[in-house]
Amino acid sequence: MNPHDRNAAPIEARLADSPRGEGRPNRQDSKRESWAESRGAVFAMLFLVTGVLGIPLLWMNKKFSNPERYFWSILVTLYTAALIYGAYLVCMWSYHRIFGYS
């Protein structure tokens, strides 16, 4: 094969060394891990963002004991049910205001 003929030569790829080195952990990864393991972040996810859908995050967090996990799971489930019921009440109130009482 002619080295000047680009179509005839196969593509060669080599892995480059990372600039942070292989032995050191990535700072961004450790920030993500600390955020995911934070009790405050779990509470924010449960009560401000996901509601009952965040319960798996609660159970994966090692900083909560089993009795705490049961307590917060029940509380978040009740909280989510109350929010859904509140949304239902607002929708029904709006419906009756728009179409009148029948």
Automatic annotation (TrEMBL):
Q: Which organism is it from?
A: Novipirellula artificiosorum
Q: Where is the composition biased (Basic and acidic residues)?
A: 14-34
Kindly provide the name given to this protein in its UniProt entry.
Uncharacterized protein
In residue numbers, the region (Disordered) covers: 1-34
Q: What is the lineage of its organism?
A: Bacteria, Pseudomonadati, Planctomycetota, Planctomycetia, Pirellulales
- Parts of the chain that traverse the membrane: 40-59, 71-95
Q: Which UniProt keywords apply?
A: Membrane, Transmembrane, Transmembrane helix
